[in-house]
Amino acid sequence: MMRQSLVMIGLNLLSLPQRLGSALIDVFGVACVVAVFVGLFSVVASYQSLLLSGNDNEVLMVMKNGAEAENESSIPEEDAAAIVTAISAADPAAVVSPESSRLISVKRPQNRDFVTVALRGVGPGAVGLREGMKLVSGRMFQSGRYELIVGAASQQQFTELKVGGTLHLADADWRIVGAFAARGTGVESEVWADLGALQSAYKTGNRVSTLRWKPTSEATAAAARARLKAEPNLGVSVLRERDYFQGAVNGLFRTMRFFAYPVLLVMAIGAMFAALNTMYGAVAARTREIGVARAIGFGALPVALGVLVESVLVSALGGILGVLLIRVALNGMQTNTNFLGDTQFAFSLIVPPALMLQGVVWAAVIGLLGGLLPALRAGRLPIVEALRET
Fold this sequence. Notes:
The chain is built from 11 helices and 12 strands. Helices cover 53% and strands 18% of the residues. Strands 1, 2, 3, 4, 5, 6, 7, 8, 9 and 10 form a 10-stranded mixed β-sheet that branches. It has a two-stranded antiparallel sheet with strand order 11-12. It folds into 2 domains: 2-53 and 250-388, no CATH class; 66-234, no CATH class. The chain is of the alpha+beta class and 390 residues long. The radius of gyration is 30 Å and the shape is elongated.
């Protein structure tokens, strides 16, 4: 049976040039489906790489209960002081960084539009909690002054965010005194200011959005969590920074699945019916040949496998073509998150090999489903009827 199956598969593949037009249509259809699938979910993979790379799994965040994003969290000054006291009591060596996160609109002259950028007010301990962050030009802002440092990714997106320039915020002109890099993380898309100056300019009553700290051990982290939990009036929750950003990625993934899967399903069904039509045509064109093979002793299963394997291989070829095209087109391309209607993050698109492999596998599945019924028809053709075909 194995030898017969290999012979029938070989005969089917050798006859492909006779059906080149229809086979190419199948390849093109599957390639389009796979390219859309890999392209869309490459955005999720790239966004995940941006947010999670450089975010320390040991850094903890304190946020107001119910807040899903930093800019939605608001912790009063007295509560922030109580949180710092509780953390310091449990972990005296920990450096606590109170931070205020706001969203501002910055104009892109080249596009003549405004996009949302994260403005972060920080204290002296903020830089130490971000590994790999360093100034690449200019200097650090001074405490109490309306001065800014901007991420390298923000500078690439906005020509006005150059060292020496100004940005008008809260009815005041803020001078840009430095630029920083952070190993290609989301922080590079932010603008930083002194926490006190930001609170004063926006008249927030010294409220902060979050407090970050890196515990010296799991024991001190657990002790600090227990102290904060014992103060229900604070109404705050503690989570790992990496988990916070993973939640943002999961939200994007859910949104992408909600909109992308119906489109991909329709396209996949179309490609499957194209494969179905092509393989039915192949069986009809080779009816007499199939009859001869059955008459000289070939079984129904090898005949059916020959048709099915051809369908799978043609679709897999389309999948390979699709992933190669999307990799050439997207891998390394600079983009941003404006299309998400969210805070501006600039990043490079990546096309992970695992996602490419998944695309080829789905292409093979399309071919399997599309070739199943024609394969069954080929295997069930009555020998006498097949031999009568002209």
